[in-house]
Amino acid sequence: MSVKLADILPPPSSTSDEWSSVRRDPWFQGREDALKGDNIGAVVMKEPPPYGKRNGWIPRNIEDFGDGGAFPEIPVAQFPLGMGMDLRKKVSSDKTTALQCDADGKLRHDAIVRIGHSKDKIIYTRLADMKPKMLEEEDESFQKPDEETIAQQTEATLKVSNIQYFLQVASALPVRHAQKPDPVQYIRYTPSQQGGGHNSGAQQRIIRMVEVQQDPMEPPKFKINQKIPRAPPSPPAPVMHSPPRKTTVKEQADWKIPPCISNWKNPKGTSYFSQGRYGMNVVFYIYFVQAF
Questions:
Q1: Fewer beta carbons below 10 Å: N end or C end of the chain?
Q2: What is the spatial distance between Cα 199 and Cα 115, in angstroms, rounded to a whole number?
Q3: Could you list the residue range(s) of the whole structural domain that residue 53 is in?
């Protein structure tokens, strides 16, 4: 008679399987809560058509997938059991921004415009921003900064300039020392998508930002010794022309140049009149005329 090991060992006090650990995951619980919403009906399990009878059949609903996954032979976008689909759109309405009020208690309608921008960025969204303002000399925004503020700004600017200068000098050295990393920063991150199906159900996160230390012996990542074509030269200086005007009859007559006819050479033997050879305004020498 053989004795089994299970008969000798005592019964287990607790059982745990992979499925139970998966169900305890907050992401999975958020997905279950999303699927239990009012806008999503109960999932009805039904078998898809068998192989060979799926000609023209396309899974459209969650029920078409049954208890399995997607069908890779069907070239359409498929989301079996809601995987890969933004279920937040079904549970709640579209992305809405919380109502905010200013110091006077009025609604801030510029909250939509400021989505995606930093809080320090100046965005003009009110009608009063387009109207000119009459500032008095006693207004605080019109006054010049005091000496303490000027000294602080000058010191901060000089500090940044020195850092950039020393970085340029250190980059030219053959051996560089490892740069001291910046201090650790803690950032409070609030995602725009709030819901159980996103961010593991967390409304806020604390992010620890640490700068990666750079290896001083790391070779350069980019080639900078290549010849770069020269930039185009500066445009030529503009030539200031006088405005165009019509030419007079006298100017047109002055531009008429008589043909160049030599008085001594006539290789082709062409005969010209005296007026054509000497022009009308030429005075004939008396000895030259007597020679003829």
A1: N
A2: 19
A3: 20-91
